[in-house]
Design brief:
heterodimer; A: 327 residues; mainly alpha; MetI-like fold; 68% helix; 1% strand; flat; B: 277 residues; globular
Chain lengths: 327, 277
């Protein structure tokens, strides 16, 4: 990947805008040299890109094309695949378990995102006061972010155990008889959501704190002079100027929540009574336990479409109200 | 503002922060405490009652008899390899995309951006079929390969950082006759330590914690990683050996806490970095 220097010096590696002036006519040697060095630079760039591009093509693009193709087939992994046209999609539309999984997933996202965002905002506002010990708090809040969700699932299953779990033992101190959380169709999903809220609130807080710290102090001073109280300042200055950070955390956390899998797999396997059967878990079961690869592929397409739609709605909502630089 | 109300306010703020901090560490402390209890104590005492007498028997049992030592070794090997691959190949691709001009560059960059949005579940069925064709089911190659060549996210993160490095440095080196390779190694990489550390940490943590791909691609103790190992343990033994399962979960959580304590500054900054454009 080394190259000889004369080529490198004149190669057009400089970015747009810094392009050397056009060659004057009647300088064919220079022109030829430049063209050769451009080819050289292109080869060099593709050599640098090659491993990564191979990975992209083989392990992302090809599977994405593959899943579309497979979704038109009936295939149990053993025999030959049968082309069935749109049959998988038609079956999906009438499959009440799929709609239940879609509802469950949405419910999980709705339990998760607002709670997580509001708690994170509260913590970020408290942290933004620059209290002594702020750094230590920040470290503690981020600690859950890197915990293994599978291990958390085990810990949470134990914590919410009706007899031996810390939650019901704690409630008993106040004379409250806690439910059998994970075997209750009402409580199982909120318990699953609580794992995610616990794990990502501190992480979300960091982004919001960075957003808060970017708000110029002078705005608050001006508002003070105009006699604006804390509530007005929060809604007129803090929240609007926090929108880019909010946009980022809402979009990424929502996409993540739609794909929850680990905690369901470890804690409830979709039960009780299908009340925690989320899309990702349902797709996993169809594909790798029932070996209905074609149908599972169609379901994966549905999930992708839903995530795209929700993301598009968020982007449109925020675009009207903020400028967010994607470059 | 009177000093009394300032004091009240300060106390409230500290109260909120302290409650949050306590909630952040409580699950870890309870897990460790529970895993140190004798089996009978685990079932008969309150979860917050200190392990007394404390025993390491659960840890040694899960380590020796339930395969935890080999699960951890496999996970460590996979996470290290994937992290190294991600760093090297993402940096190479990022340099080309950030600093070189060549036909197709913008298309390729958009390709990376577009695939970043795709949910993982989408790719799993074809990826599994591909690995089956290549006879890589239940092998390390099968575990590692899909992420070893780097992810679009890694390329994107490093590319964005490379673009912030002043071009004058590079131009000066070019005039001195430096090759692309030496510019990358001598200038770009040393100036990108924070973002490379970020990528390393995120990749390591994600690989360490990943369940679904190992769950699909491995099926024997030879390749089993921690996530698959402890979820199997939970499935089989949660009712008869809860102390063993808990010790397994504790051992799965602890290494990353150690990583965290070693690199806490880096990590906090890392997370903030990933939120930048």
């Amino acid at each position: 990947m080394t190259d000889n220097m004369s080529v490198a010096v004149s190669s057009p590696l400089v970015d747009r805008g810094h392009r050397p002036p056009a060659v004057p006519p009647g300088a064919p040697a220079v022109e030829r040299h430049r063209r050769r060095s451009r080819i050289r630079a292109t080869v060099e760039a593709y050599v640098l890109l090659a491993p990564s591009l191979a990975g992209l093509a083989l392990f992302l693009v090809a599977p994405i094309v593959g899943v579309v193709v497979i979704s038109f087939f009936d295939w149990n992994l053993m025999g030959a695949p049968h082309f069935v046209g749109l049959a998988n999609y038609r079956e999906m539309m009438g499959d009440s378990e799929v709609w239940r999984a879609m509802r469950n997933t949405t419910y999980y996202v709705v339990l998760n995102i607002p709670a997580q965002t509001v708690l994170a905002l509260l913590l970020a506002l408290a942290m933004n006061r620059k209290l002594r010990g702020g750094k230590a708090f920040r470290v503690l809040f981020v600690l859950p972010w890197m915990a293994m969700p599978v291990a958390l699932g085990i810990v949470w299953s134990w914590a919410f155990d009706p007899q031996h779990g810390v939650v019901n033992q704690f409630l008993a101190l106040f004379g409250v008889d806690g439910p059998a959380w994970l075997s209750s169709t009402t409580w199982a999903m909120p318990v699953l959501a609580s794992v995610n809220i616990w794990q990502y609130t501190g992480y979300t807080m960091l982004f919001l704190l960075a957003g808060l710290q970017a708000i110029p102090e002078s705005l608050y001073e001006a508002a003070d002079m105009d006699g604006a109280g804390p509530v007005l300042r929060f809604f007129r200055i803090t929240l609007p100027l926090l929108r880019p950070s909010m946009f980022f955390v809402l979009v990424t956390n929502t996409i993540g929540s739609f794909q929850m899998f680990d905690t369901v797999y470890v804690m409830t396997q979709g039960g009780p009574g299908g009340s925690t059967d989320t899309m990702n878990y349902h797709i996993y079961q169809q594909a790798f336990q029932l070996f209905r690869t074609g149908y599972a592929s169609a379901l994966a397409m549905l999930l992708f479409a839903v995530i795209l739609l929700v993301t598009a709605v968020q982007v449109l909502y925020f675009r009207k109200r903020t400028v967010y630089d994607f470059s | 503002m009177s000093s009394l109300s300032t004091a009240v306010r300060r106390t409230t703020l500290y109260g909120i922060l302290a409650a949050g901090a306590l909630l952040s560490i409580a699950p870890y402390l309870l897990t460790l405490n529970g895993a140190l209890k004798r089996p009978s104590d685990l079932l008969s005492t309150d979860a917050w009652a200190p392990a007394h007498p404390a025993t390491s028997a659960n840890f040694t049992a899960v380590w020796n008899q339930y395969g935890m030592s080999s699960f951890l070794l496999h996970t460590l090997a996979v996470a290290v390899l994937v992290t190294v691959g991600q760093m090297v190949f993402s940096a190479l691709a990022a340099y080309a995309l950030a600093r070189m001009e060549f036909p197709g560059r913008d298309w390729i960059f958009w390709g990376y951006l577009a695939t970043m949005m795709v949910p993982q579940m989408i790719t799993l069925v074809p990826l599994f079929l591909m690995m089956r064709e290549l006879n890589m089911v239940d092998t390390y190659a099968g575990l590692i390969l899909p992420t070893f060549l780097g992810t679009p996210y890694g390329v994107f993160l490093v590319r964005q950082h490379f673009r912030t490095i002043p071009k004058d440095l590079e131009a000066a080196a070019r005039i001195d006759g430096a090759s692309t390779w030496s510019i990358l190694v001598r200038i770009m990489l040393p100036l990108s330590r924070p973002v490379l550390a970020t990528l390393a940490i995120i990749t390591f943590v994600n690989t360490w914690n990943n369940l679904i791909w190992p769950l699909i691609i491995t099926n024997s103790d030879r390749t089993r990683v921690v996530t698959v190992g402890i979820s199997a343990l939970q499935g089989e033994h949660v009712s008869d050996l809860p102390h063993i399962v808990l010790a397994g979960a504790a051992l799965a959580l602890l290494p990353l806490i150690a990583v965290f304590l070693l690199f806490q500054r880096h990590i906090v900054r890392s997370i903030a970095l990933t939120g930048l454009k």
